[in-house]
Write a sequence for this structure.
C-alpha cells in the first residue's frame, strides 16, 4: 500500500526567506509520481509541482523546487523567497504506477504561515 | 493549467434531501474524474473514480448507493448525495486528469452542510 507522511503539522517562515516542507513516502511500485498541492483557506487545491520516479533531475517551477531523494524516499518541497500569499496548507501526494491506479494518496498536510 | 469547475460552491440542505454536485472540465476532455471528501482540518480522501461511460469505482467504505456518481460525458461528472444526513456535511472536491499527462487538476470544491 502507498503511504505519504508529512511530519510537520505547522511551519513558520519569515517573508522573503526559504522554507522546506517535508514529505516521505512508501510504495512498492517501481514507477510512481509525486505531487505537491497548495490549499489556501478558500479550499481550492492548486497544483504546484510534479516529480516522476524516473526523473533524473529535481523538478522546479518558479519559486518551488522539489528535493527528490529516491533512496531516502523523500520528496521535500522548497519554497524560495516566501511571500505572504504562500500562507496555506500544503499537501504532498503520490500516484501509483502507470496502467494501474491513477488515484492520488495524500499526506495529512503542513500548515505554512509566512510572517511579515 | 487546466480548468475544472464545480457547482454549487456551497449548499445547505435539510436532512433527508438529496444534493447533486457537478464537476466540469472546461478546456479539456477527461475520461476519468475523481471525487474526494475532506473533513475539517483533515486531508483529502478519495471517494470514487468516475469513468466516462461506465460505472464508477468506489473506495472501500464508501457507500455507492448513497453517493451516486454519473459520468455522462467527457466533460461532466456528477456526485449525488442521497438522503443526506448531518454526518455527510463536508467539503467535496473533484479532480480531472489531462489526457496523457500526470497531473490532476482540482475544482474549487463544494461545501455541503446538512442540517
Amino acid at each position: 500500500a502507498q503511504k505519504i507522511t508529512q511530519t510537520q503539522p505547522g511551519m513558520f517562515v519569515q517573508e522573503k526567506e526559504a522554507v522546506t516542507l517535508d514529505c516521505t513516502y512508501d510504495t512498492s511500485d517501481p514507477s510512481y509520481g509525486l505531487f505537491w498541492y497548495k490549499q489556501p483557506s478558500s479550499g481550492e487545491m492548486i497544483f504546484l509541482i510534479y516529480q516522476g520516479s524516473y526523473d533524473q533531475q529535481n523538478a522546479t517551477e518558479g519559486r518551488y523546487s522539489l528535493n527528490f531523494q529516491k533512496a531516502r524516499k523523500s520528496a521535500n518541497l522548497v519554497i524560495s523567497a516566501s511571500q505572504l500569499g504562500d500562507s496555506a496548507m500544503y499537501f504532498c501526494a503520490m500516484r501509483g504506477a502507470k496502467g494501474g491506479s491513477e488515484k492520488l494518496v495524500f499526506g495529512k498536510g503542513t500548515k505554512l504561515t509566512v510572517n511579515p | 493549467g487546466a480548468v475544472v469547475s464545480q457547482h454549487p460552491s456551497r449548499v445547505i440542505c435539510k436532512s433527508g434531501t438529496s444534493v447533486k454536485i457537478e464537476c466540469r472540465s472546461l478546456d479539456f476532455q477527461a475520461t476519468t474524474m475523481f471525487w474526494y471528501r475532506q473533513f475539517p482540518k483533515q486531508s483529502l480522501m478519495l471517494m470514487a473514480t468516475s469513468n466516462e461511460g461506465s460505472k464508477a469505482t468506489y473506495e472501500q467504505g464508501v457507500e455507492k448507493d448513497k453517493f451516486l456518481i454519473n459520468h455522462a460525458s467527457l466533460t461532466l461528472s456528477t456526485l449525488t448525495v442521497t438522503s443526506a444526513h448531518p454526518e455527510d456535511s463536508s467539503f467535496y472536491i473533484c479532480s480531472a486528469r489531462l489526457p496523457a499527462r500526470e497531473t490532476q487538476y482540482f475544482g474549487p470544491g463544494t461545501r455541503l452542510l446538512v442540517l
Observations:
- The CA atoms of residues 37 and 47 of chain A lie 5 Å apart.
- The longest strand of chain A covers residues 88-95.
- The mean pLDDT of chain A is 93.
- The interface with chain B takes residues 33, 35, 37, 42-47, 50, 52, 91, 95, 102-109 of chain A (CB under 8 Å).
